Amino acid sequence: MDLLIVSGLSGAGKSVAMNALEDIGFFCIDNVPAELLPSITAFSKAGDNQLKRVALSMDVRGCHTSEQIEQALHQLDEQGIEYEILFIDAPDDVLMRRYNETRRRHPISIAEGISTREALAKERQILQPFRERADYTINTELLSTAQNKERICDLFAPDGGAKAAMRLTVMSFGFKFGIPEDANLVLDVRCLPNPFYIPELKHKTGLDEEVVDFVMGHPEAKELLRRYESFLEYALPLYVREGKSQLTIAVGCTGGKHRSITFARKIAEYCTSLGYEPGVQHRDAMR
Predict the structure, then answer these.
(1) Which of 10, 39, 210, 234 lies in the 20 to 30 Å Cα band around 240?
(2) Residue-wise pLDDT tens digits, 18-61
(3) How far apart, in whole angstroms, are the C-alpha atoms of residue 186 and residue 180?
């Protein structure tokens, strides 16, 4: 089991980090009390409960003293459990500004009735064991939410970095059955010659090579594909940079059987060559 303990200052970006880790396959548990840490890790490794990648978020909501944290980490060490620590941080002035902008109150301020600056100072003292033992420290002062997510993905995604965190789907469809509701980008290939009007191809689909050969045998199809590929080469990294977690590229023709399936397959192959891992769906192939 790969165990990652995520901690850091309130308002620094732990929630963004946990969301990003979940997107790349971690089983995430938020707000773990220090006393339960050894029990949770033991449960995660036991029998049918075995989990491959686990991320536990721990902060001052469940860790009230630095001694509690030290004791919990000591118990993990005694059990021989290997783990890494990610600490999310930002300067106090930045955290103060974020609290002012969101009009939220620091959890210690709520519990003890002290100012936000005093709460931050106490929080730093409590979480110091995590910071001292951190394997990774990210300062989010100059990072947007999307950049914070990208940094997490680059550190912990098994392959592909931030690209692996965006679930990419390429879907073929027929316009006469409606545009897919979850489509983010819609590419129209109805401008190309239609195999439907070729008797020997009418009852085949873009999954058959005869149809692919017919569609891609026209120069305008090759040029249209090249231009769509050029657009995606430019646009997909922008979606990744903005922290997009899901993106569906819908490719449509009239009935969703011939041209759209051919182009969806070609576009998926191209996205794979760029380092993405697209899923491919043919919504109307069996209609």
Answers:
(1) 10
(2) 999 998 889 999 999 998 988 887 776 665 556 789 999 999 99
(3) 9
